[in-house]
From TrEMBL, chain A:
This is Carbon starvation protein A. The chain crosses the membrane at residues 85-109, 130-155, 161-179, 186-204, 224-244, 256-278, 290-314, 326-351, 389-412, 432-453, 459-485, 497-517, 523-546. Belongs to the peptide transporter carbon starvation (CstA) (TC 2.A.114) family. Pfam families: CstA (PF02554). It is a multi-pass membrane protein. The lineage of its organism: Bacteria, Pseudomonadati, Pseudomonadota, Gammaproteobacteria, Oceanospirillales. It comes from the Bacteria. InterPro entries: CstA (IPR051605), CstA_N (IPR003706). It comes from Isoalcanivorax beigongshangi. PANTHER family: INNER MEMBRANE PEPTIDE TRANSPORTER, PEPTIDE TRANSPORTER CSTA. It is found in: Cell membrane. Keywords: Cell membrane, Membrane, Transmembrane, Transmembrane helix. Residues 3-347, 365-506 form the CstA N-terminal domain.
UniProtKB/TrEMBL annotation, chain B:
The lineage of its organism: Bacteria, Pseudomonadati, Pseudomonadota, Gammaproteobacteria, Oceanospirillales. This is Cory-CC-star protein. Pfam families: DUF7990. It comes from the Bacteria.
Length: 554, 92
């Protein structure tokens, strides 16, 4: 199987989905109206509510939702073979993600740009809203713990990436200073920043940095995790203009450059996919494809995190309601395209099937390492960038994504603690520093409590992240479905994905709980149980709300 | 100016405006919050001065730097000082 065929099939499928299916959903189901006065105009305040150019808004939406997940999830899921991952990413993007993202923006825009959490309170009920807070907190906790491990693994596996990954922070700090203190034009600073970032990527492999195998009894992996959390804690309390804003910006630019390079290299090299379409020789201990495929690949197919961004910031900046199709649906396609690249690199970037099997020798293997190594091989052959520099570039790409998501995630987690401090009148918890320490502390408990001295607890809970994240997506779809029913419009286009997601999430959770119970892994069993209870309650709330809305509807 | 040059500068300006939007959009809220804080800080300073309460400004200065910097620079120039008189707040 040629990678170009897979690439073109995938992209063509998504393009057709955008051209036809999204138009049908936008015009017939959501009935997007170009004359509707969006909250961006109605409440325009120059702060939250600002009518924004749709291309800019698409960039904002896409880079906000693109974390490490669309890279890591598919690169792990190809263990079942490339076909299931490919089909789920393409059809998931067309029928699930695009509709979910566009629907979340529409639902929010039609409700004074309220966030999905607030909407849940209005449309479903207050109990569901409280559940939503718990689910959001768990997702953030898992994102931070998982991404800490992902970056640490990348740094241990690719010592050449240490300089560019940490150097990118310095580049962002300098950019922030140049823009705000020296008042240099943004165009010039952007060019300088990108050049500096790629210069670091070139220099990195020549000055590899490895931590000693043991520092105070901690492995190199564990030391990196601690350092990363220290960094994220500092980043989350620094003013946004200093680090987060320039870092996200330069990261977004790098994403576009990286994607173009990857697709160009695949088109030039046309590598053959060495992995089997359906892997019948699964390593022992690999869980069943159904339902775990649908929770392992969350971002790239459908992800609850998108609903938070879509209804949080995107909906407040939508200039015309019809833009929701481009921003939301095409944002989903952006993630799908990144996942597709990840599938291709993790299946076609190996010399032979034996090489591929050596990497995918157990479930949870491969992942970002397969993306980096496979991609490096294709980039070297296609564009002539040496394998070492290519590997560093892809590592930096994956690590920067995980890093920006991690420091934003930690900041959001801090806000939740501060909110709880206010709600329950615990004064010290309402302050920034103690709340940050609590956020970092809970992440470290998860990383080291579940993973032992290695600190890799985050990765053990990756499938749990999938289920929790899908729960969020389910809640968003539920809100959209209820709104459609209330307006007496066909609801099956969101109800079917909703039902599918809930069934797969519950099944996946039950299977995982069983294996945690057998392994006597009480920590994960406990955490999984919380998610299960939340999932069941969400399902019940869903049924109750549907019944209520039927009674209300004439 | 030749038409080609005009077109180039036009596209450069558009690209720059586009970039600025993309740079600012996700953080508009946080930066605006800092701007509001600036007003609050001013009130706090005035009241603190009146009541003899220790000055809390140093703690907030880092957050407000990008907003205060230009105005501070204009201010010290108007006061006849070529450079910033504060060690921890250097603008030029």
């Amino acid at each position: 199987m040629s990678a170009i065929v897979l690439l073109l099939l995938g992209l063509a499928g998504m393009a057709l989905g955008y051209l036809f299916y999204s138009r049908f959903i936008a015009q017939r189901i959501f009935k997007l109206d170009p004359d509707f006065r969006t909250p961006a105009h109605e409440f325009e305040d120059g702060i939250d509510f600002v009518p924004t150019n749709r291309f800019v808004l698409w960039g904002h939406h896409f880079t906000s939702v693109a974390g490490a997940a669309p890279i890591v999830g598919p690169a792990i899921a190809v263990i079942w073979g490339w076909l299931p991952a490919f089909l789920w990413v393409v059809f998931g993007t067309i029928f699930f993600a695009g509709v979910h993202d566009m629907g979340a923006i529409w639902a929010s825009v039609r409700n004074r740009a309220k966030s999905v959490g607030a909407l849940t309170g209005d449309v479903v009920g207050r109990r569901a809203r409280s559940l939503f807070m718990i689910v959001i907190f768990l997702v953030l906790l898992m994102v931070n713990a998982v991404f800490g491990v992902v970056i640490a693994r990348l740094l241990v596996g690719n010592p050449g990436a240490v300089v560019p990954v940490w150097g990118a922070i310095a580049v962002a700090l300098v950019i922030g200073q140049l823009i705000y203190r020296r008042l240099l034009p943004l165009g010039l600073v952007s060019v300088l920043g990108v050049i500096a970032l790629y210069a670091l990527i070139y220099v990195g492999p020549q000055v590899p940095v490895s931590l000693p195998d043991s520092t105070f009894g901690l492995s190199a992996n564990a030391s990196w995790i601690l350092l990363l959390f220290l960094y994220a804690a500092i980043a989350s309390v620094l003013p946004v203009w200093m680090l987060l804003q320039p870092r996200d910006y330069i990261n977004g630019l790098q994403l576009f450059v990286g994607l173009i390079l990857i697709y160009a290299a695949v088109l030039i090299v046309n590598p053959a996919i060495v992995a089997p379409a359906l892997n019948t020789d699964l390593p022992p201990g690999t869980p069943s494809l159904i339902p775990l495929l649908f929770v392992t690949i969350a971002c790239g197919a459908i992800s609850g995190f998108h609903g938070l961004v879509a209804s949080g910031t995107t909906s407040k900046q939508l200039a015309r309601e019809t833009d929701a199709r481009f921003v939301g649906y095409f944002g989903g396609i952006g993630e799908g395209a990144l996942s597709l690249a990840s599938i291709i690199l993790a299946t076609a970037g190996f010399a032979s099937l034996a090489d591929w099997q050596a990497v995918y020798h157990a479930f949870g293997q491969g992942g970002e390492a397969a993306f980096v190594n496979g991609g490096a091989r294709i980039l070297e052959q296609g564009i002539g960038i040496s394998a070492e520099v290519s590997a560093t570039m892809l590592t930096v790409m994956a690590a920067l994504f995980a890093g920006t998501t991690m420091d934003t995630g930690l900041r959001l987690q801090r806000y939740i603690f501060q909110e709880w401090g206010e709600i329950y009148q615990i004064k010290w918890m309402g302050k920034a520093l103690p709340a940050t320490l609590l956020a970092v502390g809970t992440c470290l408990v998860l990383a080291f409590g579940a993973g032992g001295a290695d600190g890799s607890g985050g990765l053990l809970i990756w499938p749990l992240f999938g289920t929790t994240n899908q729960l969020l997506a389910g809640l968003t779809l539920l809100v959209i479905t209820l709104m459609l029913i209330q307006r007496q419009r066909p609801a099956r286009y969101t109800a079917i994905p909703l039902a599918f997601l809930l069934v797969m999430t519950l099944l996946g959770l039950l299977l995982q709980l069983r294996s945690f119970f057998i392994d006597k892994n009480w920590f994960l069993f406990g955490l999984g149980s919380v998610v299960l209870v939340a999932a069941v309650l969400v399902a019940l709330e869903c049924v109750a709300a549907l019944r209520r809305s039927r009674q209300v509807a004439p | 100016m030749t038409p080609l040059w005009q077109r180039i500068t036009h596209w450069y300006r558009r690209a720059e405006a586009f970039g600025a939007e993309y740079y600012n959009a996700p953080y508009r809220r946080a930066i605006a919050a800092a701007r509001r804080d600036e007003e609050d800080l001013f009130m706090l300073l005035v009241f603190a001065e009146m009541m003899g309460i220790p000055n809390p400004a140093t703690w907030h200065t880092l957050e407000l730097q990008p907003l205060l910097l230009e105005r501070f620079h204009d201010w010290h120039r108007r006061q006849g000082m070529a450079h910033s008189p504060l060690d921890q707040f250097r603008c030029c």
